[in-house]
Specification:
Pyridoxal 4-dehydrogenase, NAD(P)_OxRdtase_dom_sf, EC 1.1.1.107, AKR, 349 residues, 13 helices
């Protein structure tokens, strides 16, 4: 695949949003798992820009505002007419005592705690706070962040949806979109089921889905992705490696869905890797490129915490993959027959 190619995410009120097929996931810039110096964060963003990446995603959660502030510094250097930017709402950052700082996977963070709020006032405050940190009003996509059950349980999801639809959260998003303050609305979540539920309730433009349509998982092909095509809804795919195992392979300690991979998954990854080896193709390259075969998927956004990682992502993204690899994966039952591979998508265009 060539990094210069872009896809279009349509919306309901403004001109379509152009997304580079390879985007930039901003979680590592929030000091995910380890501290990154400000100068290294800026060098990483510059490397992404220099490579041709034009879509950048961030969120208040990432380093309790640090990622957004680092992206803001880079945006001042980038051509605003070429940038596509997304951030997220629903998590409000409040000053707190040191012992009350929200425990997250981020280190060296500001002294803040997270409060979930998907009401009208919560969405508006979250948006205004992000505008202040990003120092720009040119936000293209605004995603409800982790509105789904996730690790918090079904009661958490039900309460969030009540706030969204009964207490004005969706009305806030719609007003921002109709006022041309943002171009598109959606959700950044870990399950496709909540995306389908949201689409059944209201008018969304796209979703940032962490995993769920990967070399290991294609369940969304049954109902959700066809619905996206029918409704002209775009998908941005985060987590193309299923939290690690499709990047590392089935090594000891490999992680799947943020936990040690079970034996069944390890066996499937070994089988996937065997096919890739037979075609002299790195497993990680097949994993990164596979989701973009589906016409609903507009961009994949692996994270990066250094210029070298950006360059590696670009190299992986542009690795040539023989057609026979995809056909062998299908013939061996390792990916579903109805999955549209990147080559099939290219042939159809």
């Amino acid at each position: 695949m060539k990094l210069t190619k872009t896809n279009v995410l349509n919306n309901r009120t403004r001109s379509p949003i152009e997304l580079s097929q390879l985007g930039f996931g901003g979680a590592p810039l929030g000091n995910l798992y380890r501290k990154i110096e400000d100068s290294d964060a800026q060098a990483t963003l510059d490397a992404a820009w220099d490579a041709g990446i034009r879509y950048f995603d961030t969120a208040p959660q990432y380093g309790l505002g640090r990622s957004e502030m680092r992206v803001a510094e880079a945006l001042a250097r980038f051509d605003p007419d070429q940038v596509s930017l997304s951030t997220k709402v629903g998590r409000i950052l409040e000053d707190c005592e040191p012992e009350d700082v929200t425990p997250e996977a981020f280190v060296d963070v500001p002294q803040k705690r997270i409060v979930f709020d998907f009401t009208y006032d919560g969405i508006m405050r979250s948006y205004d706070d992000s505008i202040a940190r990003l120092k720009t009003d040119r936000i293209d996509m605004l995603f409800l962040h982790d509105i789904d059950a996730g690790t918090h349980g079904q009661a958490f999801e039900d309460n969030n949806l009540r706030q969204l639809f009964s207490e004005g959260g969706y009305r806030a998003l719609s007003e921002l979109r109709e006022a041309d303050k943002i171009s598109a609305i959606g959700a950044g979540v870990n399950t496709w089921q909540i995306c389908a539920r949201l689409l059944s309730e209201a008018d969304f433009d796209g979703f940032l889905l962490a995993g769920r349509y990967t070399l290991l998982e294609q369940d969304p092909l049954d109902t959700f992705l066809p619905l996206c095509i029918e409704r002209d809804v775009g998908i941005i795919l985060g987590g193309p490696y299923n939290s690690g195992i499709l990047a590392t392979g089935a090594i000891e300690g490999a992680r799947y869905d943020y936990a040690p991979a079970p034996e069944e998954i390890l066996q499937r990854v070994r089988a996937l890797n065997d096919v890739c080896v037979a075609h002299d193709t790195p497993l990680i390259a097949a994993a990164l490129q596979f989701p973009l075969g589906h016409p609903a998927v507009k961009s994949v956004i692996p994270g990066a915490s250094s210029p070298d990682e950006v360059r590696q992502n670009v190299e992986i993204f542009e690795t040539p993959i023989p057609d026979a690899l995809w056909s062998d994966l299908k013939s061996q039952g390792l990916i579903r027959q109805e999955a549209v591979t990147p080559q099939e998508s290219l042939d159809a265009s």
